């Protein structure tokens, strides 16, 4: 198969769909890999790294889209890229179609076969191609929160770990899933006093078993939340109710009882945010203040650490990318129901029920299309 990797063109996107190591594996499997000139630069990979891996560097995206059997990317194809997709071509990338009717319409019209990273599943009921980005965002949250807490940035002027004789910062993490667990680990590692609240007792039991006294856990009731908000120097929002907008757990009226200059890091902003006052920000201007409380609400946090994110995503996508290239999508999806769950569009038809329901478009059963 000819595997093509174009440069990402979405603003502020520095990741790349294929790492040189993934390209090398594909070449070792007998495939041709073509990579657009400079595609890896944002993530710290030079063209020479790809040629050393056995890939060929191609000047333009047009040439990549025109000749590749499979396009491997990071972000959903932008309008200009969608025009280049063609019938029979395989697209493997994040799509997030449900809130994006224009993209859905274009993918259906293109006749391509599109497999979305975010709907590929695993045996434990997880989303293995979303998890690496949640791990990155979770580990980054205390780091950006600590920066937000600095006086010059409008924060309370509190050091995460304190110093001898001065207590550490108090960090509240709301939601103890992938993001919350990684955030709590790092915040505790920085020396902060950390509490994680979740609604799932099973999850709280797991966190308690695995992490012991590294951080505390609590059941996420409004009463306990209010108690912790009054004490917190930093609050990290990491809740997710699958398929729904994030619940607004912290409201503006809470700010009056919070410490002035406390930092809110709303990682759940990509689902609308779990603080009432959250609005999405960018890496260029990540923070703003409301009633003396500092907010950090960057919707694509992993972009700040494009190299780590690219490698983490590449590790997770590589086995699926190789299966698709080795067997073709039909056989690969027939052999792996979790990969089949990634199929969103094929030959002019939508194949993912939840997207069809969200957009009012008829769908065909993905399983009926695999080999
Ligand atoms: N901003 C970014 O760059 C970025 C990057 C990655 C992930 N995210 C987002 O972070 C959020 C969390 O992702 P995740 O992978 O950790 O999800 P997850 O499903 O692993 O965890 C979510 C947790 O929230 C808990 N929860 C639900 N309702 C709650 C409530 N009322 N109080 C407390 N806990 C509650 C759930 O029990 C679950 O444990 C998602 O919205 C995800 O899209 C954002």
Biggest pleated-sheet summary: 8 strands, mixed
Low-confidence stretches: none
Q: First CA to last CA: what distance?
A: 18 Å
Helix-strand makeup class: alpha/beta
| Continuous helix count | 13
Bound molecules: nicotinamide-adenine-dinucleotide
List SSEs in N-to-C order.
Answer: EHEHEHEHEHEHEHEHEHEEEEHHHEEH
Instruction: Report the helical percentage.
Output: 25-40%
Q: Overall mean pLDDT score?
A: 96
Q: How would you write the strand order of the largest sheet?
A: 3-2-1-4-5-6-14-15
What is the overall shape? Answer: globular
User: What is the radius of gyration computed over CA atoms, rounded to a whole number of angstroms?
Assistant: 22 Å
Number of β-strand runs: 15
Estimate what percentage of residues fall within beta strands: 15-25%
